[in-house]
């Protein structure tokens, strides 16, 4: 544990199947990472409604209070957060990768970094050590891979699903915790004026379009066995032949490397 | 096309007739080649020719004559029409991920989208950093290629790359910037660029049509419909890749030097990650063992050989062969692997539920009637130990051959 | 000389006993307040002791008779000794009575000693092995000392030598049996046990009643602790209950987790609570340890946390999470101690305050909060299993006879077969029923057993609110867990219903000849009693009656009825998943296989899932509803015209 001054930005999430408000998955992971680094001295910051009960789920992870910059829904959180962070004296600001409600563009950490002039680490998985104003961190890459980076303090880091899973939120501390609201200037978000949200349309599975250049190709495409519909079963074959078939599929799918 | 070999008696005759003017063209050269294990292989049957009386003749003088090579139909490579943009009215800039130096499927979709946006007047510029191995930029739809090479861009250098893209912006002022919204770099680079340029990007876009774009919003339960902005971060399958034209791939140079920034983030290189430690929900290829696995050491060896993440059925976990966090299924982890290989797992409902999101399922089992086989795309009925051993061998051979290819 | 010595010894011991009793009483009173009927309880105590408790002890005839002789003899002897020797009332008749009592006690003590020769593993050793000697010493000493009183021997027989020996014997006897009773000796069970019976936290259990629902936490009271962190967070009569333990180990022998080698032993747990109550370490515990955990490494005190998540305290968290809440320990306990209540109380603290529900626990609770089902499935899919069944919905019918409570099995592909079978039965019997559909939520059972009282109450209150909009006569459920919670635990939150398990309801339907049933074909069948149906709600007969009606003669397992062994699926145990040496369902499957049955009938989705999780080959597992649906005959019931039960104008909520 270090004596770093760490702020984690949190938002109100939405459960992927029910859509009900909850603590956002990635934000909770960011809180977890912060708790592991700073313990109970971790500060939480939210821009939005201080009466939102869901925010207590973050306090339930073992924190006494959270600062809330009071804003109506649809206001732009960026300027008020940047303003707050500029004076907060934090060495590390943790965020999730993208919000679970609203636009969810994932731009916030990038814009904050740009406005504050701080470096940004995307996909922080672990802080290995901090010394001489520099942090050595692991960055998460797809498929569980990691990259080691050295970054100057202070910096912003976003956290995705590769970061350590968030601890359970307990009812007692959540109920006791304080949401400290403070008034800030309200800046409207221009996007919502022109864009509209609608229920997600399921994306169609891409069809295999066969562009036949010759008659024979067209014939072949038309008569070929439709893919799917029962798998291939190899029975009474030698182990070698079976292994060969499996091997072929693995190569085809590109998982052997 | 048909693979039926048709004999061409006239060609055979020409091949035998040393005096025929076309004789040399009809020779088949392949009499020796490098075998897979590095040994020179010879085809004794290809040596020599059938003489006029039907007797095989071998000419040791060195001047090989006559051919018994069978004639195959020459596969006609269809030349796609070349799409030429001499004076582009505007540019559409694409920054592909170039995973492993090649265009990924995502990149190709993105180039398809770029071509759609470019229409017949605009030119698609691909901005490629570092060395690349791709040689099909033309058919992927790249009109102009801006190759930015140099050690500056090596490794993880997003800030330096953004400086370069800033220079591209001021030189070409592209009508649109397109980047893949991927975890392999594009998503990050695109957002950094957006922050730098002060453009509000459209993210996770999966459809662009008539000036409007639709992208996923929030946790994926909603879509955001908006006017297509300059900067678009597009999802996989945002458009059909280019398939029926060739493009010039005309090289483009960046005028002026790119400023060198003081790196605030230093890349210390990749960290070796044990595939066994990759969280299962993230793993792409899972080798999962169940009650039918008797030789667990072999199973672990197979996982290492295949580079697969290990999983297990509930029974295997209960019996203590695998740790609890490796359990796949409704009561364990729900996995999303591209290939899920189930060895000795009969497929309880809970287990099948947990692998519902897997693309391809391979089953190895003794019992041809079990539920896993009904789910699997490929099933091999037989002794799992023998099959795993054979598979390890086969993969080892493949790896060896691969190493030699690279050398 | 004895005439002066004996009263001194007797009254000194009695005085010390009273002192100890006061001290012990104050120790219990460190716990939180609890409402008890002080006087009524004391007055009811003899009956509770002689009737209710005796019923439990009577299951072991040897011990019951031994105890009657020993305890009866002792109580009589002690009273008479105080009169005769204490107050010096040297009456011959009283003397003979005292002699008789001593003989009775002596005989009983001999049997106690015999049991202790080769004691079963469940019994505690240590001071408990000393007890028969003390009993014998007491009875023999008083017998000899009383002989002169009865006039059998001359008054000065034996001289000072015998007097000294007797004085030592009496001193030993009274210190064990009088003041040992209140100073923590083995005889403490008699003193604390009697008071425990008087001020029991579930007085409804006496007189043939049943009280199995967990008690609600008052979440509106911000001062009340959320569960039990330290021994003093228990209510005082719970602490008193722990002190009543006789360490007979009946609970240990019945506990499925202990048998599976999981780190739980109900007896040790209660003794650890006693250690916590008084302060100290468990080093003196003389029984079986928690499997895999050495004795002597844990210690605690009344104001120290019971569980230390980072290290060792009084009890390890995994001990608490091993419990399946099957209530086998409570059922067996001759002192009627409430183990499950204590375990859930301590779990509540871990979940509500520490956020330390192990393994999948946190995920399940999060899912319950966000999706109303433990699997995290989209709530809109709750009725997908019945898409083709055209089920009547409560929101359309408003008023029905039977509300069919589907439960979370709706999301489980295996359980959907059971549900469909039961719907088939309901339709065949022309029952006027409906389901809540998307208005139904998880009953809160798992959340509550995992200690998440807040989520339980939130779910329960919303369910109660949904149901209050409609009229129905009774609720029927295929899930004993929902059944139990709806029936016994919603009441405290304002939901009072008549709830039936589907086996009970099918029994009623068969009794009313509303079903036209064939006979079961196929092999032999055994029946597995679900804990939440049997022990929790006393329903052992209906399932068997249903099976009998379809021509099945149940091949009973050795552990069946109230001694049925848990499948391992209760109390969130499959979620917390504490490793042991073997799995509980595997052990239960061995029980099943011993009957030679080819099929086991069950009445609970948890039991189905756990038993079907056992590796084949094993007997088939089928729910009673499936067995009944299989033999339904197409033709309508011949005799009576099915009259759709009229919903009475009775508002139930």
TrEMBL record, chain A:
Residue span, Electron transfer flavoprotein alpha/beta-subunit N-terminal domain: 12-196
Pfam families referenced in this protein's UniProt entry, alphabetically: ETF
Record InterPro entries: ETF_a/b_N (IPR014730), ETF_b (IPR012255), Rossmann-like_a/b/a_fold (IPR014729)
Lineage: superkingdom: Bacteria
GO molecular function annotation: electron transfer activity
Stored SUPFAM superfamilies: Adenine nucleotide alpha hydrolases-like (SSF52402)
Protein family: Belongs to the ETF beta-subunit/FixA family.
This protein's UniProt keywords: Electron transport, Transport
Protein name: Electron transfer flavoprotein beta subunit
UniProtKB/TrEMBL annotation, chain B:
Organism: Pseudomonas borbori
Electron transfer flavoprotein alpha/beta-subunit N-terminal domain ranges (all copies): 92-271
Official protein name in the record: Electron transfer flavoprotein alpha subunit apoprotein
Molecular function terms, GO-annotated: electron transfer activity; flavin adenine dinucleotide binding
Family: Belongs to the ETF alpha-subunit/FixB family.
A GO biological process held by the record: fatty acid beta-oxidation using acyl-CoA dehydrogenase
Pfam families to which the protein is assigned, alphabetical: ETF, ETF_alpha
SMART domains: ETF (SM00893)
From TrEMBL, chain C:
One matching Pfam family: DUF3483
Coiled-coil residues: none
UniProt keyword list: 4Fe-4S, Iron, Iron-sulfur, Membrane, Metal-binding, Oxidoreductase, Transmembrane, Transmembrane helix
Gene3D superfamilies attached to this UniProt entry: Alpha-helical ferredoxin
Boundaries of every 4Fe-4S ferredoxin-type domain copy: 236-266, 311-342
GO terms of molecular function: 4 iron, 4 sulfur cluster binding; metal ion binding; oxidoreductase activity
Keyword 4Fe-4S: yes
Chain segments annotated as transmembrane: 6-26, 68-87, 93-113, 134-153, 159-179
Record GO cellular component, one term: plasma membrane
Name of the protein in question: Fe-S oxidoreductase
Taxonomy of the source species: Bacteria, Pseudomonadati, Pseudomonadota, Gammaproteobacteria, Pseudomonadales
């Amino acid at each position: 544990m270090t004596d770093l001054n760490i702020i984690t930005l949190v938002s109100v999430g939405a459960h992927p199947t029910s859509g009900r408000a909850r603590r956002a998955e990635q934000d909770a992971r960011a809180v977890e990472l912060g708790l592991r680094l700073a313990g109970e001295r971790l500060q939480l910051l939210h821009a939005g409604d201080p009466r939102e009960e869901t925010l207590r789920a973050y306090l339930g992870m073992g924190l006494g209070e959270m600062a809330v910059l009071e804003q109506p829904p649809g206001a732009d959180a960026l300027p008020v957060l940047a303003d707050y962070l500029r004076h907060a004296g934090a060495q590390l600001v943790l965020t999730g990768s993208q919000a679970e409600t609203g636009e969810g563009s994932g731009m916030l950490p990038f814009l904050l970094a740009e406005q504050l002039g701080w470096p940004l680490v995307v996909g922080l998985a672990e802080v290995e050590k901090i010394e001489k104003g520099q942090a050595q961190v692991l960055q998460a890459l797809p498929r569980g891979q990691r990259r080691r980076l050295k970054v100057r303090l202070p910096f912003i880091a976003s956290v995705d699903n590769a970061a350590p899973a968030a601890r359970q939120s307990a009812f007692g501390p959540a109920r006791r915790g304080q949401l400290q609201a403070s008034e800030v200037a309200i800046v409207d978000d221009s996007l919502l004026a022109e864009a509209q949200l609608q229920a997600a349309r399921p994306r169609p599975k891409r069809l295999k379009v066969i562009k036949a250049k010759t008659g024979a190709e067209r014939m072949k495409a038309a008569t070929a066995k439709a893919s799917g519909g029962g798998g291939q079963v190899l029975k009474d074959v030698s182990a070698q032949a079976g292994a060969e078939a499996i091997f072929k599929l693995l190569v085809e799918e590109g998982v052997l490397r | 096309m048909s693979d039926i070999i048709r004999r061409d008696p006239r060609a055979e005759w020409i091949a035998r007739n040393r005096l025929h003017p076309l004789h040399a063209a009809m020779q088949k050269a392949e009499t020796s080649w490098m075998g897979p294990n590095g040994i020179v292989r010879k085809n004794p049957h290809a040596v020599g020719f059938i003489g006029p009386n039907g007797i095989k003749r071998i000419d040791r003088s060195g001047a090989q004559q006559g051919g018994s090579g069978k004639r195959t139909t020459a596969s006609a490579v269809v030349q796609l029409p070349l799409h030429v943009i001499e004076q582009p009215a505007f540019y559409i800039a694409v920054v592909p991920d170039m995973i492993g130096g090649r265009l990924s499927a995502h990149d190709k979709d993105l180039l398809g989208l770029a071509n759609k946006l470019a229409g017949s007047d605009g030119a698609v510029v691909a901005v490629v950093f570092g060395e690349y191995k791709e040689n099909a930029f033309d058919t992927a739809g790249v009109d102009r290629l801006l190759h930015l090479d140099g050690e500056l861009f090596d490794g993880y250098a997003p800030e330096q790359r953004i400086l370069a893209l800033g220079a591209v912006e001021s030189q070409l002022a592209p009508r649109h910037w397109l980047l893949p919204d991927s975890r392999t770099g594009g998503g990050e680079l695109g957002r950094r660029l957006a922050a730098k340029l002060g453009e509000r990007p459209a993210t996770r876009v999966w459809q662009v049509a008539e000036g409007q774009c639709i992208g996923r919003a929030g946790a994926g339960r909603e879509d955001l419909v908006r006017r297509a902005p300059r900067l678009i971060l597009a999802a996989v399958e945002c458009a059909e890749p280019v398939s029926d034209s060739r493009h010039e791939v005309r090289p483009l140079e960046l005028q002026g030097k790119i400023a060198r920034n003081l790196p605030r983030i230093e890349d210390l290189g990749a960290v070796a990650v044990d595939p066994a430690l990759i969280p299962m929900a993230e793993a792409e290829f899972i080798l999962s063992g169940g009650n039918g696995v008797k030789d667990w050491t072999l199973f672990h060896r197979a996982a290492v050989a295949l580079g697969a993440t290990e999983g297990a059925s509930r029974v295997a976990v209960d019996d203590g062969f695998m740790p609890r966090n490796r359990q796949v299924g409704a009561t364990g982890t729900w996995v999303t692997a591209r290939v899920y290989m189930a060895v000795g797992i009969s497929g309880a409902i809970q287990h099948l539920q947990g692998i519902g999101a897997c693309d391809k399922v391979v089953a190895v089992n003794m019992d041809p009637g079990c539920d896993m086989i009904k789910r699997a795309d490929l099933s091999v009925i037989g002794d799992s130990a023998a099959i795993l051993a054979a598979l390890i061998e086969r993969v080892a051979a493949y790896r060896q051959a691969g190493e030699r290819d690279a050398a | 000389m004895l005439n002066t010595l004996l009263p001194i010894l007797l009254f000194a011991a009695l005085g010390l006993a009273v002192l100890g009793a006061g001290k012990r009483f104050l120790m219990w009173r460190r716990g939180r307040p609890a409402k008890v009927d002080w006087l009524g309880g004391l007055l009811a105590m003899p009956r509770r002791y002689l009737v209710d408790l005796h019923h439990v002890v009577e299951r072991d005839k040897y011990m019951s008779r031994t105890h009657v002789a020993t305890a009866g003899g002792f109580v009589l002897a002690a009273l008479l000794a105080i009169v005769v020797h204490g107050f010096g009332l040297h009456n011959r008749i009283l003397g003979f009575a005292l002699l008789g009592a001593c003989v009775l006690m002596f005989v009983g003590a001999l049997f106690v000693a015999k049991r202790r020769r080769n004691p079963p593993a469940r019994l505690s050793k240590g001071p408990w092995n000393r007890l028969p000697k003390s009993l014998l010493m007491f009875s023999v000493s008083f017998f000899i000392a009383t002989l002169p009183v009865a006039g059998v021997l001359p008054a000065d027989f034996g001289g000072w030598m015998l007097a000294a020996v007797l004085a030592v014997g009496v001193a030993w006897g009274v210190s064990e049996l009088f003041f040992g009773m209140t100073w923590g000796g083995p005889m403490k069970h008699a003193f604390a046990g009697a008071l425990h019976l008087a001020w029991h936290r579930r007085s409804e259990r006496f007189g043939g009643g049943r009280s199995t629902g967990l008690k609600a936490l008052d979440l509106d009271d911000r001062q009340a602790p959320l569960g039990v962190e330290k021994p003093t967070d228990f209510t005082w009569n719970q602490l008193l209950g722990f002190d009543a333990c006789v360490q007979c180990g009946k609970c240990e022998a019945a506990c499925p987790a202990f048998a599976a080698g999981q780190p739980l032993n109900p007896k040790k747990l209660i003794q650890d609570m006693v250690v916590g109550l008084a302060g100290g370490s468990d080093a003196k515990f003389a029984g079986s340890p928690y499997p895999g955990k050495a004795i002597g490494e844990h210690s605690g005190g009344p104001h120290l946390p019971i569980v230390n998540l980072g290290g060792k305290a009084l009890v390890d968290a995994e001990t608490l999470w091993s419990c399946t809440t099957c209530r086998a320990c409570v059922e067996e306990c001759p002192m009627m101690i409430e183990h499950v209540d204590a375990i859930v109380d301590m779990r509540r603290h871990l979940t509500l305050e520490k956020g330390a529900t192990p393994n999948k626990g946190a995920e399940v609770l999060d899912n319950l909060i966000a999706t109303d089902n433990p699997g995290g499935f989209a709530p809109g899919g709750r009725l997908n299993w019945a898409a083709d069944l055209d089920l009547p919905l409560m929101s359309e019918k408003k008023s029905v006879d039977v509300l069919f409570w589907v439960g979370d099995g709706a999301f489980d592909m295996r359980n959907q077969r059971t549900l469909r079978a039961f719907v088939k039965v309901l339709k065949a019997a022309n029952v006027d029923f409906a389901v809540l559909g998307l208005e139904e939520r998880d009953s809160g059972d798992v959340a509550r057993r995992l200690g998440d009282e807040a989520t339980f109450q939130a779910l329960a209150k919303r369910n109660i609110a949904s149901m209050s909009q409609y009229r129905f006569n009774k609720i029927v459920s295929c899930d004993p867990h929902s059944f139990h919670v709806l029936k016994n635990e919603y009441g405290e939150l304002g939901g009072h219903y008549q709830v039936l398990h589907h086996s009970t309801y099918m029994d009623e339907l068969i009794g009313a000849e509303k079903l036209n049933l064939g006979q079961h074909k196929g092999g032999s069948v055994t029946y597995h009693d679900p804990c939440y149906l049997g022990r929790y709600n006393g329903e052992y007969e209906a399932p068997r009656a249903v099976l009998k009606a379809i021509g099945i003669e149940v091949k009973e397992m050795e552990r069946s009825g109230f001694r049925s062994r848990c499948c391992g699926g209760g109390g969130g145990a499959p979620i917390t998943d504490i490793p042991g040496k073997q799995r509980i369902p595997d052990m239960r499957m061995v029980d099943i296989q011993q009957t030679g049955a080819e099929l086991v009938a069950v009445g609970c989705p948890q039991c189905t899932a756990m038993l079907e999780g056992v590796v084949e080959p094993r007997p088939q597992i089928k729910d009673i509803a499936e067995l009944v649906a299989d033999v339904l005959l197409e033709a309508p019931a011949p005799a009576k015209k099915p009259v759709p039960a009229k919903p009475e104008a009775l508002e139930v909520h």
